Fold:
Amino acid sequence: MKTELIEKAYAVARERYAEIGIDTEKALAALQNISLSLHCWQADDVAGFENQGGDLTGGIQATGNYPGKARNIDELRADILKAASFIPGRHRLNLHEIYGEFGGRFVDRDQVEPAHFAGWIEWARENGMKLDFNSTSFSHPKSGSLSLSNPDPAIRNFWIEHTKRCRAVAEEMGKAQGDPCIMNVWVHDGSKDLTVNRMYYRELLRDSLDKIFETEYRNMKDCIESKVFGIGLESYTVGSNDFYIGYGASRGKMVTLDTGHFHPTELVADKISSLLLYTPEVMLHVSRPVRWDSDHVTIMNDDTLELCKEIVRCDALDKVHIGLDYFDASINRIGAYVIGSRATQKCLMQALLEPLAQLRQYESEDKGFERLALLEESKSLPWNAVWDMFCLRNGVPVGESFIAEVQKYERDVTSKRA
Ligand code: RNT
Ligand code: ZN
Structure:
């Protein structure tokens, strides 16, 4: 797209927004301040580098076998940097424990140390990225159906040790980057068929978490992620939404809302205001569930839009951390990163341009028609011209021009991977 055209369109949009009391420059500055936490696992279908040769377990699935996935740490890093070069702004990288640098040796999960992430910390510093972290309870011989809630103390303690060590890794990351590393705990624990021990496993999970969180850290923050069900774990999930809301509220821990982890018609956006009243902050895993927790690439749909609007309406941009969580193995993986990240940012852009003061004025006067009319009209205000300007100023491809760039990287690099 011609720069001149983008500038012209922006000038018109700026005036149009000024008419309804919105300063587009302020919105651009606010968007510039928002870092997404990019999930490292989109580049290799959640495989990691542990080299156990095992399958992806824990009730999650990456379907498809599009060629060119990252096979090692260098390829993964190159792919992430390539994707990031098409995403405006500065972003964080969210690592899983299985992405450590284990130097070709098998390092079991209860042996992981900050040293295994020293290379990542260095790499992140060099590339101006901050790190977030995740313990990994899946894809391991001891994963089974139950990890932190396993009645067998040997298995339970193994995972407690793993998760404790992961927190120590996160603390090092946070210290090195001078900004808290956010560590997510998601365990797949559940049951394929009916269980008559719902209470028992939940008690075990609660007690395991209490042990894990005994050490207080200053450079990392914990978050805990619930789920409705997993594949092969359809009848019961130990860490359900109720479980973690209770846990988070009583222990002062952040709850992670994964947009795929609720009943299909449940509005995840509606949860933010409630959680923020009782838990310190909120972590998001923005995804796209298609009929179930399918982890399709995030797009600019009503769900994502409402989610972003709620963050802004709650004035909670500093309390809600926006991570992405999808893994599509059926299309170009770098392209998938870019689509989902930019879609989330487009939603944030619209949220930041919403004529909120006027909408609230109408609402306070009980003017229902006026509120609905303005909500509808604001959908077609020229937010896209402001978004294009955001891309232009950030030196990333504007509009669909990133397609050709992703294709070029595929031609030159990923298509050559066996
Ligand atoms: C699984 C959870 C979890 C994972 C990642 C890989 O349902 O969403 O966040 O997707 O940890
Ligand atoms: Zn998730």
